[in-house]
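Subject: mismatched residue count in predicted assembly?

I count 304 residues in my input, but I want to confirm that the predicted structure covers every chain. Input:
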Amino acid sequence: MKTKLVLALLATVLAGSATAQVKPEDAIKWRQSGYGFMAWNMARIKMNVEGGNYNKEEVIKAANAIQAIANSGMGALYLPGTDKGKGWEETRAKSNMWTEKEKLGKAAMAFGKEANELAKVAANGNADAVEEQLGKLGGTCKGCHDDFKAKR
Amino acid sequence: MKTKLVLALLATVLAGSATAQVKPEDAIKWRQSGYGFMAWNMARIKMNVEGGNYNKEEVIKAANAIQAIANSGMGALYLPGTDKGKGWEETRAKSNMWTEKEKLGKAAMAFGKEANELAKVAANGNADAVEEQLGKLGGTCKGCHDDFKAKR
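Triage response: the counts match. Full output below for your records.
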């Protein structure tokens, strides 16, 4: 009995966070939500830089949201086994996300770096610089999708 | 022809942002995404304060994500007519969101205030204070849901 308890406690400690209690369908829904919300913010920054009607405050809010989501630790939502399953919809995460860890890590790092940079550039308010940085961020999205997200 | 062009330009300017170009189904999906992502972050802060295994860094990331989403200007996603329609799922926004503007504005202000406060409290790292502030934030969520979100 005592051994079981110790093992259970150890498992909790090793988990290092509360993710062990998360249901797979919630994890999938929550990560789809993160990307969905970033999609809005990418879209409205794009509309601002292309529309000839640049709203600095809106771009800052959008870039800050992307940055905070990018830095939120969404990796914790890729629970083992969640290469299959339905959140808002069937996941399109490919199973190599769980095997090509080094490649995935590099992609995630690049994404975080460009998201942080976008927030900085947005604060400065130069539409051309924001457009350029949005392109760099979008490149890291696309790279990761090409490698790790199934096509429809 | 010229009058039409001027009117079109005027409409763009009056919109004051790029929301005029947004499809209703996207607006609904994106707002559902914002709430969905906040739900994860609320849930993991709760697990941290209740689990006896407080991870300050995780709580800060979660609180920062909630704050950035709360301050992102999601009101722009409540396009006229989007009290009906499907994003990830059928919207549960009640039509009084578009009529009881003062009441809604107060609810949104309270939510933003408590979200900003949570990020501050999380940075300080006191689990008890975070738990108390999470309760205050949750109260503003519930208040708004009770008034403006249809039950399942």
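The CA atoms of residues 48 and 54 of chain B lie 5 Å apart. Marking this ticket as 'not a bug'.
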